[in-house]
Amino acid sequence: MLEKVVHTKQAFTEELQKAATLQDLEQTRIKYLARSGEIAALFEGMKSAAPAEKPALGKTLNELRQYAQAQFDEKKLLLEQSAKPKEVPFDLTLPGRSKPIGTKHPVTQVMEEIKRIFRSMGFSVENGPEIESDYYNFEALNFAPDHPARDMQDTIFIADKILLRTHTSPVQIRVMEKQKPPVRAIMPGWAYRNEAVSARSLVAFHQIEGLYVDEGVTFSELKGTLVAFAKQFYGSSIKYRFRPSFFPFTEPSAEMDITCYLCNGKGCRICKHSGWLEVLGSGMVHPHVFQAVGYDAEKYTGYAFGMGIERTALLRYGIDDIRILYENDVRFLKQF
Ligand code: DAH
Prior knowledge:
This protein is an alpha+beta fold. The protein folds into two domains: about 1-85; about 105-335, BirA Bifunctional Protein, domain 2 (2-Layer Sandwich). It has eleven helices and ten strands. A seven-stranded mixed β-sheet has the order 1-5-6-10-9-8-7, with helices on both faces. Helix 1 (about 1-20) runs antiparallel to helix 2 (about 20-30), helix 3 (about 40-45) runs antiparallel to helix 4 and helix 5 packs across helix 10. It is rod-shaped, with a radius of gyration of 44 Å. The mean pLDDT is about 90. 3,4-dihydroxyphenylalanine binds near residues 250, 281, 283 and 305.
């Protein structure tokens, strides 16, 4: 009986060593460790051993079973590990992962481009407050208290005669108050109007204002400067026209149109089939404005202009809904 035990142990150990796969191992387990395996058969055989031998035999068989189980477990772990694909910590041949680099918002890009062009023509950049008084936003700009043009501005009031500026034109007044002519400045910034948000209008938007005051400034200089700007900004092949208009703070006033460069003036969705795009308002500074800031209206003349930046971005990129600029959809923004 003991001989059989020794023999089984040897045979088991050899077969276990030979097992190269988990399937081989399973065969070995069934052969030796299963309920009907060889070790179980030895326990069965113990029943017919002499009573005196039983305790020692039982001990030996238990040891064999423990040994076989432990060997089996160890080998199983080993085979399972080698069956797994090897983990390679780094693959140095892989191409690097690039991090997406953000871009400037289209409104910022347009603003910077406009500033760059006017700076190159000798304009300085000035700023003023977004919370304004009625005086700067309207009165000093020649809007009489009951002037109907005030209605057009959809003003957001904060307190009596205190408001969110409806345009950047009040900065003209602030610049002229602190500086004697010649003045040649652009004034960018936020403006606010109590309007329903739609494809064409926002409550908060940007404008850029321009002002040039000196002795003997003429309307032809206004035209020359604005045409030079438009050709740089929209392209040298555009055609333009000036249409008479009205603003309380300029006389005469004109709006500038350029040929729609998306359809070359043939008429399309963006120019509403007119072939023309309205790009800015402008005019010769009204004498009342000079009087408000203490400039001699007999001695000085000047021109002013203003344009909406979001609107300009729409025209430039052929976008037909202004709201998309502020939805912050990365799929839209990363195109710029
Ligand atoms: N402030 C005007 C507006 O918001 C735009 C404008 C028109 C500004 C003519 C000017 C100008 O300086 O001369 O509609």
